[in-house]
Specification:
By secondary structure, the protein is of the alpha+beta class. It is about 55% helix and about 10% strand. It contains seven helices and five strands, in the order H-H-H-H-E-H-H-E-E-E-E-H. The structure holds FE2/S2 (inorganic) cluster.
Length: about 170
C-alpha cells in the first residue's frame, strides 16, 4: 500500500516536472531557429528551475524542435555550469590528484563507489548523495582529502569514510 502511494506521488511529481519543462520550452519555441544561443538560455532557465537539466527536458526539446537528442546532450554536458544529473541532498567530493592518490585516495574512491553504487559525477537513486572527484583541492599534504557539503576531511581512508557516511546518514 505504501509502495503504491509512493508510486502515485512519484508519478504526480514527474507530471508536474514535465508541465514545468513544457512551460519553459514554450517561452523559447519561436526562437529556436536562432540556434545555439537560445538553447543556452533555455538550458539556463531549466537548470535554474530544477538545479539540473532533467533528461526528460532534453527529450522534450528534441521532440518539439527537431533538434537531435545527441546534439542537445553534447551541449548540456559541454558546459560545467550545467548538470544533467540531479544534485543529491549531500555532495561528496574525493580528491584524485597525484599526492592524494599516492596516499590512498583510490581506496577511498573504490569504497565510496561500492557503498553508494554510483560512479563519480552521479547521484544516488534515493537522492541522498552526489559523488564527484576533483584533481586537487590545493592542500595536498593533508590528503587523501574528502569534502562533504563544503566541509573538508583530511587523511581519509575507507574506515574513516564509512564512519563519516554513517554520521551524515544519521543526521538525515
Ligand atoms: S592532490 Fe589532493 S589536495 Fe592536492
Amino acid at each position: 500500500m505504501i509502495k503504491l502511494r509512493k508510486k502515485k506521488a512519484d508519478k504526480t511529481k514527474l507530471q508536474e516536472q514535465i508541465e514545468k519543462i513544457d512551460e519553459i520550452i514554450n517561452r523559447y519555441e519561436d526562437r529556436f531557429k536562432d540556434g545555439h544561443k537560445v538553447l543556452i538560455e533555455l538550458f539556463q532557465d531549466i537548470n535554474q528551475e530544477f538545479n539540473y537539466i532533467p533528461e526528460e527536458s532534453l527529450a522534450r526539446i528534441s521532440k518539439r524542435c527537431g533538434i537531435p537528442l545527441s546534439r542537445l546532450f553534447s551541449l548540456a554536458t559541454f558546459y560545467s555550469s550545467f548538470r544533467i544529473d540531479r544534485i543529491g541532498k549531500h555532495h561528496i567530493c574525493v580528491c584524485s590528484g597525484t599526492t592524494c592518490h599516492v596516499n590512498g585516495s583510490d581506496k577511498v574512491i573504490d569504497e565510496l563507489q561500492s557503498k553508494l553504487k554510483i560512479e563519480p559525477g552521479h547521484t544516488t537513486e534515493d537522492g541522498n548523495w552526489t559523488f564527484e572527484t576533483v584533481h586537487c583541492f590545493g592542500v595536498c599534504a593533508h590528503g587523501p582529502l574528502v569534502e562533504i557539503d563544503g566541509k573538508y576531511y583530511h587523511k581519509m581512508n575507507p574506515k574513516k569514510l564509512n564512519e563519516l557516511l554513517k554520521k551524515y546518514e544519521d543526521d538525515k
